[in-house]
Sequence to fold (962 residues):
Amino acid sequence: CSLTEKQTNGSSPNIIILLMDDMGWGDLGVLGQPSKETPNLDAMAAQGILLTNFYTANPLCSPSRAALLTGRLPVRNGFYTTNAHARNAYTPQEIVGGISKDEILLPEMLKKNGYISKIVGKWHLGHRPQYLPLEHGFDEWFGSPNCHFGPYNIMCFPHLTQLYILFEGMDFIRRQTEAKQPFFLYWAADATHSPVYASKNFLGKSQRGRYGDAVMELDYSIGQILSLLQNLGIEENTFVFFTSDNGAALMSGPQESGSNGPFLCGKETTFEGGMREPAIAWWPGHIKGGAVSLQPANVMDLFTTSLAVAGISPPDDRMLDGLDLTPVLLNGSHQLDNRPIFFYRGNEMMAVRLGQYKAHYWTWSNSLEELKDGINFCPGQEVPGVTTHDQKEHTLQPLIFHLGRDPGEKYPLSVLSKEYQEVLCSVSAVVRQHQKTLVPGMPQLNMCDLAVMNWSPPGCEKLGKCLKPPTSAPWKCNWPH
Amino acid sequence: CSLTEKQTNGSSPNIIILLMDDMGWGDLGVLGQPSKETPNLDAMAAQGILLTNFYTANPLCSPSRAALLTGRLPVRNGFYTTNAHARNAYTPQEIVGGISKDEILLPEMLKKNGYISKIVGKWHLGHRPQYLPLEHGFDEWFGSPNCHFGPYNIMCFPHLTQLYILFEGMDFIRRQTEAKQPFFLYWAADATHSPVYASKNFLGKSQRGRYGDAVMELDYSIGQILSLLQNLGIEENTFVFFTSDNGAALMSGPQESGSNGPFLCGKETTFEGGMREPAIAWWPGHIKGGAVSLQPANVMDLFTTSLAVAGISPPDDRMLDGLDLTPVLLNGSHQLDNRPIFFYRGNEMMAVRLGQYKAHYWTWSNSLEELKDGINFCPGQEVPGVTTHDQKEHTLQPLIFHLGRDPGEKYPLSVLSKEYQEVLCSVSAVVRQHQKTLVPGMPQLNMCDLAVMNWSPPGCEKLGKCLKPPTSAPWKCNWPH
Ligand SMILES: [Ca+2]
Ligand SMILES: [Ca+2]
Fold:
């Protein structure tokens, strides 16, 4: 509040990415959550632009986050597995791999224009020393490499932690502002990941149970952050983007997971419920308030768009999947409407969206064996031939949906229709081009080894809890879905 | 526009009910329709109050409309059938019955304070002479008794008609305003009922196909009506309520039906998708803009609330199901939070909502036979033990859902939980009280007869299309679901 002089030199606006964990498209009031418990996010949308066709790059934490920070599909940046066909993979404690040194992360790029970067919250790009945030361009880090697992079997964030997550973010903003230092804050709160949690002030406050309490606290926290920017007078010099890393984790049940609104299935699947995310861009004085964009966009665009905002050219020595959205966000341009969005599991392209159409080349929810064990990625939903329990190939005749008429992916176009034939023609050309030029990165999520677990975390000596790692005995990780 | 003097005497504010046909909760941008194509309704919500827990009285046109205009459940006002257990019924051309002379309709009550009333659009409370609108308190009528059927097999509204529906409504508003005459406009557009239609200017404009075109035109029309009120300077003297008569008709497919958002199933069912409706109250200067109310409410409240707005005491010689919502709408009162909402099929109470809980005493989507014929009220949705295809009784142990945590009705509470036992206790008391005092009206929708069809509609002589009615041969109507 001491700074009244507005920092609007414009050459290096601050950048804040607010990334939620497993929050669903339908969890925001402005996107139809019936209890309407997100007044701050709804206000953020009213002051900014709401993107209703925004996607993640993968329906799971680690690959989604790797894609956001590299601007590249997981199949390119290495955050995938080839152990079995079309499997989701992430970074449990026993994972050997992590984000490669060959990848260039957003904070590394931003350094070129003198940005200071901080990650607050969940990293999830590998926990071995060489993979940690400070090795990949971040200057500060508060949080943990993974979450919800570990040799000590503790949650990485205890019940008070959302307060720390908020404090650490706000403190960073305050310090950099005082130092007149352009900054990048990657604020990756994980309160909505099962086991969900909220601080005492929010417990029991929601109509939606504990999950809703967590959403309410995150909404409150984001309101605090935006207010701080305004109080510091830097709101017109700070580009803020809100989104989530994947769809709501429906398999966790109603107390522990959110809503994907009208969309099919959830986390772990390449249906809309797994991939479509809430998304709001906010930048007073630059982005017109109350706008809605139907632009198909994704988390990889945040890499490219952030660089554009910072006035930095993207790396030219590699293929990027992200596009610069500033023409869309700042000027309402429709030039990018026909860019494709790809949906992967592992190194298999499961589906592609082009314009309003989405073509599924492979369908799979999860296996019948898992389903029998009570794991269900599509509870209460069953679309014959679509939410298949075997890996069903449609490459010769993809299932095509019109997402405007049928956002729930329930009614595939008739293959005999003219519409189908025309769409197939244009989609096929895009897919051929994509696959022809695709060079997969080295898969980082193939190998597991108990020896790489964090047996001796910092401070373990004092607690007498340092453990001796077992002998290395790597195996191919088992990725069941 | 000629009237600049504001009419705000307050004793007899105008009343406008905008009733949509088969429009779903999820069709409004402000309620999460991904294409966000309802700018006027979204603005209406921003200037008024959005009720996210608003219900119809029955998941079908006729009983819903009868309930709205009488303030009474269909089982009381006669708009139901006893031909078979728990069946939905309406007024096809061959129906013998209609709205009883013993019922008091809203326009009849409003006459007491000198209101002039007009219905524009769909009536659906019986087409025989004694059942028509002008016999039941309306002073003007533009529209048709039924829709989409008839001996001539014409749609009741041709493609141009939404323009007439709009014109007739606006013309009425203008005329009454000029005459300084308090008015009630019941604007019952049916463009979103299959076969959906839109005027030329809107065809092909939506991302959502023809259904979306119809929604866009209705949204435009409502914007025109609200603008007219403002231009006439009567917006602070006109109470406007927007809602729909039942959930989206999912069985009609993606081109011909809308979205029920995150809710289960649709039209014809007593799940949330069939019963929960979009609802907005708008009254500048009286209702605080941008408010959201979680008040459980329903169309029958519109009868009682309209009377309260008009300063008229409700009839005291009969049981009313509607409550006066003005404390909720005008003052944000929470006193009515624990009022029950009943869900019927025929004369069977299928379910009841109390607070956040909904207890199903009977479940039924539709029969397996219908399902095999391709009729599906829950396409793509199948919740074991909930969306049952036989009429499943749970009266001894109702299925109970917490609609805040689980708006999609997928996770019944465990009957062993303390929560279940406590809820059952309070719900049972409410149900006992309801059933003990319930006196069913004479069922109007039991008998059909080809002789009552409209064989000689007005003007048939000129066209040479008058037909001779067959001999009367009544039968018990067959209501399949
Ligand atoms: Ca996640
Ligand atoms: Ca209807």
